[in-house]
Amino acid sequence: MDFTLIIAIVIGVLILFAIVVYNSLIGAKNSVEESSSAIDTMFQNRYDLIPNLVEVVKQYASHEKTLLEGVTKLRSSAMSGQEMTKEKLAGENALSGTLKSIFALGENYPDLKANENFINLQNEWTNIEENLQAARRAYNAAVKFLNNKKEMFPSNLIASMMTFKEYPLFEAEEEAKETLDAKDLFAK
Length: 188
Description:
mainly alpha
């Protein structure tokens, strides 16, 4: 066989390999962005729920003004961030914690807890949170897959020539990471 033909075949195989790896990296990046978009949709559903929730709670717990103002500020702050960043994730975790506090108000206000609108909002919030957890798991899996492709040989050779933005992983809130001590529950 002619030496130039062998060189041409080797170069062709290398180019084909680079194209396949490049396309798989782009596919992985697109999966991350698709998962991120699904999470943003869930966040928007949660943001849309907040004004109704605040209005219902205001009717029954007017002296909880600080908490209601806090959730409104957190909502505005969370809505301003467009891209998935560590700061946005921290803001979303803070918003989740504050929303839990608002729903806990139902324990202190029996009339609020019995209010049909409050119950419907609480059920809707629970549904949104469940969907959000599923979307977060899908997002984390997509980010992990992309990170593995960027770091593992041979795709890291192609990835190093490209610039991929870093995507943060969703992590559990600090309170959720703490181990629950059953003795504390029964000591009260």
